[in-house]
Amino acid sequence: MRYKANADRGHHIPKQRFRATNWAEYDAALRGRGSLIVWFTEAAVAAWKGEPRTTRGGQPRYSELALSTALTLLAVFRLALRQTEGLIGSIIALLGLDLAVPDHSTLSRRGETLKVPQARAGTRPIHLLVDSTGLRLCGSGEWLVEKHGSRARRSWRKLHIGVDADTGRIVASTLTAHDVDDASQVGPLLDQVADPIASFTADGAYDQDGVYGEVAARHPDAAVIVPPRSGAVPSATAGTAPTRRDEHLRTIAERGRVAWQKVSGYNWRALVEADISRLKRVIGGALRSRTSGRRATEVTIAVGVLNRMLELGRPEYVRVP
Prior knowledge:
The structure is a single chain. It is built from 13 helices and eight strands. By secondary structure, it is of the alpha/beta class. It has two domains: 29-110, no CATH class; 126-288, 2-Layer Sandwich (Nucleotidyltransferase, domain 5). Strands 2, 3, 4, 5, 6 and 7 form a six-stranded mixed β-sheet that branches. It has a two-stranded antiparallel ribbon with strand order 1-8. Helix 4 crosses helix 13 (292-312), helix 5 crosses helix 6 and helix 10 (244-255) crosses helix 11. The longest helix is centred in the C-terminal third of the chain and has 21 residues, at 292-312. The mean pLDDT is 89.
């Protein structure tokens, strides 16, 4: 592996090669990602109509599952709201169903407060990998660049995600302003994980006492694997009651940072970076919604889409010598 310590001679290190051992199953899973049968399910059709409201006001015509299905198709095929309305209408017509087609205004309005169904949590301990990335906002600035070639300051939001290292599923996500500290979102991410956590792994931006405290308060036995900063010093109690961070510093001092990465399992953090890359390649690196509530729904739908694609099939690799 090309570590930073070998950056000056990295061109001499041959690139590792891998081969998929389940290519037939993975190839079928890749084709299934574009299948309407996968995304427009019988369960969604059966629960299409909204439940009658017992309070005052108009009656909902569409269930939350129906709207989630429509917004899922929007995310998978990268459609606009009106195009999504046309796709849903054509599917319903081809199936010969007597169902109302949600218009684009309803999809936009209900997306503000939509509750997306979440997968049930398991009981096994998970190894949580945490990282963040930026998502730009589509707006007038993008139009100015395309139309007139002028530059405008782009607006961004920051997406924080937590990934199960064993399955690759995104089990927690939050969307914040671009200037929010990564470490401040550890608590909200942990609150979304119902499974017991065996370890918490993140990069050096999470090297703060508050992060260790948030993890210890919820999962006392969880190992916190965060690389200390280059100028980090041991705590005052390192000699008598060393903390987990003190143990990291001692291992780094004795064996070096590269060896610590191997021993601690920090290198598994690359999996969360792979999930971020997959999100931007499959869904895109921009948010198209205009309000905070709709953006949060857009992110939740995107996370559900990626997890569903993983359920269809994952590649299994072996290293080629």
